[in-house]
Design a protein that fits this description.
Blueprint (H helix, E strand, L loop, with lengths): L8 H4 L7 E12 L4 H9 L2 H8 L4 E6 L2 H22 L11 H9 L5 E8 L2 E11 L2 E9 L8 H15 L4 E3 L13 E10 L3 H23 L4 H19 L3 H16 E12 L13 E2 L2 H4 L12 H13 L3 E7 L2 E10 L19 E9 L5 H14 L7 E7 L3 H9 L3 E11 L2 E3 L2
Parallel strand pairs: 5-6, 12-13
Antiparallel strand pairs: 1-6, 1-7, 2-3, 3-4, 4-5, 8-13, 8-14, 9-10, 10-11, 11-12, 14-15
């Protein structure tokens, strides 16, 4: 509720004070003015990123008035948002709202309800934002951007460009709404707003208030221990994420994994074999594309089906990191399950040329194929997938060869790599004795 809304009744009234809980939250506001401050920031501080985007194509911000135009990008922007929510905020199970699409499209049909914009390079969606009008203000709503353009900070560019657009409409203030540390970068001033939670049952209200007091006490304790709330939330969400993973696995898989981990802690030697494929030695052979490239909705279908696989949050974190770095994912979904995936990494997009912590330097004119997984039975899906990725790798500018690391235990992948034209180069060994890594 806004600062001007009376809330005293929920605190002092004999009846309602026992059925209501009132919270006060800071609300960030962004002064729009004539829009010159946004133009200056874009020109002085963000021009290099704008220029880099323009080198990719025609960069343009489009105001969306047509519900059909919003509908054309809505599913894509929801995929952007879902991936980030799962990776950054550890929301493993997002409840699907089947009415949210029609809700926004119907609001757009009414005048001065929705402020929707899309930032594009040519026809590719870079960032999308949907905000709400509130009389003389605009309230921050859904904001999301493509992970494929994350290195250019598209969300920040979009916010600044939106400020310029609001100035054209003589909107004085952009309400950033409470919550979200990133909003502090844009807020020019703050006020306080209220959240009132009302209960029909006094008992429910007492329970809720007790939980709030415990939460506030916990915040004081972690503050005393110099632990930030973000760190505490991350630890807690990680525990939940691991719980969701393990409870969905078979008991036999859990036992086998436990025994294997115990053995690994005591003594383990792992061999990683390096294979290379020179592109000039490849005989062009047409094949069916069994995998989809850079499909976010496929990634969102991931669920761990083996104990050694990462939890949903850890998988999404790594996937988001890879996509933002410019790497490419290949996926296949069967019966709404991600049954196959692999990654292709170009050397110029790797922050470090040392692969998998080993003393293996990836040459500048190379690509790296990694993280192969298939849940399907038989070698055919993996073979066709490997051939497809290899064909795409030959089209990478200036790339002359592809490398792949194969575990000494993964005989199937090793045979498929050899069949695809990869030749053994050398091996690295990882040793673990009584929980300590030895050599490398």
């Amino acid at each position: 509720m806004l600062p001007t809304v009376p809330v005293k009744w929920a605190v002092t009234d004999q009846r309602w004070s026992k059925r209501c809980h009132v919270r006060t939250l800071p609300r960030g506001l962004m002064q729009v003015g004539n829009g010159e401050s946004f133009k200056e920031t874009l020109r002085k501080k963000k021009q290099s990123k704008i220029n880099r985007l323009k080198r990719l194509g025609n960069l343009h911000l489009d105001r969306i008035h047509d519900p059909e135009e919003l509908g054309a990008i809505f599913d894509e922007m929801m995929c952007f948002q879902a991936l980030r929510l799962k990776a950054v905020y550890n929301l493993a199970e997002l409840q699907e709202d089947r009415e949210i699409r029609s809700f926004y499209l119907n609001l757009l049909r009414r005048p001065r309800m929705i402020h929707a914009t899309a930032l594009r390079v040519d026809d590719k969606l870079v960032s999308a934002q949907i905000h709400m009008y509130n009389r003389e203000q605009v309230l921050l709503g859904r904001i999301t951007h493509s992970p494929f353009y994350a290195r250019y900070s598209p969300g920040e560019l979009h916010i600044l460009m939106t400020g310029i657009e609001l100035a054209k409409e003589s909107i004085p203030v952009f309400d950033l709404t409470p919550g979200g540390d990133y909003k502090d970068r844009y807020a020019t001033h703050y006020d306080e707003v209220y959240v009132i939670t009302a209960f029909f049952s006094r008992a429910q209200c007492i329970v809720y208030k007790t939980k709030r007091r415990i939460a506030e006490g916990f915040k004081l304790i972690i503050g005393y221990l110099a632990i930030t709330p973000a760190t505490a939330r991350d630890k807690y969400s990680n525990l939940l994420d691991q719980w969701h993973k393990w409870k969905g696995l078979k008991l036999s898989d859990l036992v086998a994994t436990g025994l294997k981990r115990l053995k690994t802690k005591l003594w383990e030697t792992t061999e990683l074999r390096v294979y290379a494929c020179e592109f000039n030695q490849i005989t062009e052979s047409p094949g069916n594309n069994t995998m989809v490239r850079n499909n976010l909705s496929d990634l969102l279908a991931y669920r761990p089906m083996r104990a050694w696989q990462p939890s949903v949050n850890n998988f999404m974190k790594q996937a988001l990191k890879n996509l933002e770095a410019g790497h490419h994912v290949y996926t296949r979904v069967e019966e709404n399950k991600l049954t196959q995936y692999a990654w292709m990494m170009e050397s110029q997009n790797l922050k470090s040329s040392f692969i998998d912590g080993q003393n293996f330097v990836l040459p500048a004119d190379s690509v790296f194929l990694t993280d192969f997984y298939t849940h399907s039975e038989g070698p055919v899906p993996t073979q066709s997938a490997l051939n497809q990725i290899l064909r795409d790798a030959t089209k990478v500018p200036n790339a002359q060869r592809a490398y792949i690391l194969v575990s000494g235990e993964n005989r199937q992948l090793e045979e498929l790599a050899i069949k695809s034209g990869f030749i053994y180069q050398n091996s690295f060994f990882k040793k673990n004795i009584l929980g300590k890594k030895v050599g490398g």
